[in-house]
Amino acid sequence: MPKIDTGRFELNYVDEGNGFPIVLIHGLAGDYRAWIPQIEKFKKDHRIIAFDNPGSGGSSDVDGPTSMEEIAQSVLTMLDQLGITRAHIVGRSMGGAIGQHMALLQPERIHTLTMAASLAKADPICERILINMRELLEWRDNWTDWARHSTWMFFGPEFYNANPDIVSNVEALVGDESRSKISYVNLSKAVLQHDTLDQLHRITCPVQILAGARDPVCSMTITNWMREVLPEAETVIFEKSSHFFLIEEADKAMQTLENWFSRHTP
After folding, report:
1. What are the residue ranges spanned by the domains of the chain?
2. Which are the contacts of 163, defined by CB distance < 8 A and separation ≥ 6?
3. pTM
């Protein structure tokens, strides 16, 4: 896979398909492979850019403090080098926070913004979960244990109980021992410091908010905070799902994205 030097961070990325661009930004855990179903689906009609966030996959580590704004600027620099002047942005969890800053930094570049299981500011439950998961990694110093103790929160109970193979595959992905632990610690702290609630009203592009009704990480409290600030945003709630509703209700999630792109692509 090719890489682009954006300054502090070198980003590992895929560039597939042709047409109006879609940029896919994954969350705190995992890498660009979280988007493989969406890449395969939408590359038929769109140019798809998916990349490993700093500290993930083949991108450079985050060896010191950072912020969602700094990473957003790196993504915009990557798009400059790829010749992309305007695009749909889809961010999951932390990726949605990065997308917010992209829209605030260079609004003319962001055609639409989709935030999936994301946040403009952590609520107390989110804070406790992220701190607990970070401390778990620091105490155990082991990704396999971290995955085993954390992954259950990403799925609704019905899905978790009924799909042990899928859960095991996700645990193996996020429990990859090659992942940078210091990067996760620094990124987790950056997510906790992220707060754009008083700035979201400045986002002028069409916005779509997707949320899992049973998500404790980016809860309905967090979702409703964003809806209050962005009253014109379209919101879709995945009633049966938690943080990973893109997996739990995959067909509905894919159809939701397809409808969004079909209505908003120039």
Report:
1. 3-264
2. 155
3. 0.97
Taking the CA atoms of residue 59, residue 85, residue 114 and residue 255 in that order, the dihedral angle to the nearest 10 degrees is -100
pLDDT along the chain (266 residues), means of 10: 96 98 96 97 98 97 98 98 98 98 98 98 98 97 96 96 96 93 98 98 97 98 98 97 98 98 98
The alpha carbon torsion through 238, 241, 247, 249 (nearest 10 deg) reads -50
Is the separation of the CB atoms in 53 and 94 below 8 Å?
Answer: yes
- The predicted pLDDT at position 29 comes to 87
Q: Which two tokens stand for residue 5?
A: 């030097």
CB-based contact 242:219 (threshold 8 Å): no
The CATH T-level fold of domain 3-264 is Rossmann fold (3.40.50)
Q: What is the DSSP string of 189-210?
A: HHHHH-B-TTTGGG--S-EEEE
